[in-house]
């Protein structure tokens, strides 16, 4: 739910439809029972196979020279409106007394702990409840920046402070949460680290549960293991496709909505109209926070902030 938001109903509906088929009262006619079983198994196999093919194809495409430039663009963090504190800034530079937030256009007054951009309140991702974020499954997101900070010999004290900050900047690959940061760093972490890895996890689970339904489904007699595995495979398979489409659509909308992302490194087709159906699909699957001026903080978890960690 935290990953797909309202789109969570898509895999749930597909799983519910399959569950209604496999748990429905069995017909007394043997041929009808065989047809029902064949439909459930073949439909799950078809969806899982399509999911695996779709995911692998896109994983390969995103590593090609043309498409990989999109991810490299996010790595360069073009939304920065201040110099990197880890670089040598001894030369005198003049800065404006008022800096506008690159994500909202409002006056900026807060600093991102990761890229050090100065952003407004609406341009900052305020994080998720610790109950979800730090309970289990969290990991460091910016290993390369942390290594760079630890190797800083010109500013060792500042490097140590930044190292501690980057170690605390984490993503949870079970609940899809990210530590507080500016909107740009959040979108980067979500699309190309947290969400990207969760798609891999869901791909493996969806295909493995489908295989296990054939390998071990008939051996367990205590409960209907095969039907359970088929439903799990359907859920993870549809979730994988939805998450991958959501990641790609969110990155695409973020690039289109923010002028600083539209450089020569961006493939031309990213900024072009892709047609009525693809554009509607992009608008449907993209995270609303990718649009200019939208606050990325999730408000539906506010009630969990009142629950303190034990």
From TrEMBL:
Official protein name in the record: Unnamed product
Membrane-crossing segments per the record: 43-62, 198-217, 229-255
Q: Which UniProt keywords apply?
A: Membrane, Transmembrane, Transmembrane helix
């Amino acid at each position: 739910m935290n990953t797909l938001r309202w789109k969570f109903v898509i895999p749930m509906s597909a799983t519910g439809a399959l569950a209604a088929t496999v748990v429905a009262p069995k017909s007394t006619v043997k041929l009808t029972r065989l047809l029902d079983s064949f439909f459930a198994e073949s439909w799950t196999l078809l969806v899982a196979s399509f999911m695996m093919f779709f995911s692998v194809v896109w994983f390969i495409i995103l590593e090609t020279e043309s498409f990989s430039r999109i991810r490299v663009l996010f790595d360069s963090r073009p939304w920065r409106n201040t110099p990197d504190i880890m670089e040598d800034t001894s030369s005198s530079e003049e800065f404006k007394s008022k800096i506008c937030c690159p994500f909202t256009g409002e006056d900026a007054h807060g600093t991102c702990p990761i890229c050090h951009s100065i952003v407004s309140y609406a341009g900052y991702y305020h994080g998720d409840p610790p109950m979800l974020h730090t309970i289990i499954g969290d990991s460091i997101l910016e290993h390369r920046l942390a290594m760079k900070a630890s190797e800083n010999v010109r500013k060792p004290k500042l490097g140590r402070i930044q190292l501690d900050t980057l170690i605390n900047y984490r993503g949870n690959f079970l609940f899809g949460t990210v530590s507080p940061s500016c909107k740009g760093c959040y979108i980067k972490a979500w699309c190309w680290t947290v969400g990207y890895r969760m798609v891999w996890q869901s791909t493996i689970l969806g295909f493995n549960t489908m295989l296990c339904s054939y390998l071990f489904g008939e051996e367990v007699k205590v409960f209907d293991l095969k039907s359970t595995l088929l439903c799990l495979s359907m859920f993870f398979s549809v979730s994988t496709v939805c998450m991958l489409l959501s990641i790609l659509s969110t990155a695409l909308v973020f690039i289109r909505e923010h002028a600083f992302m539209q450089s020569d490194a961006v493939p031309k087709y990213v900024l072009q109209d892709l047609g009525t159906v693809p554009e509607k699909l992009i608008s449907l699957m993209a995270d609303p926070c990718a649009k200019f001026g939208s606050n990325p903080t999730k408000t539906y978890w506010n009630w969990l902030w009142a629950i303190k960690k034990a």
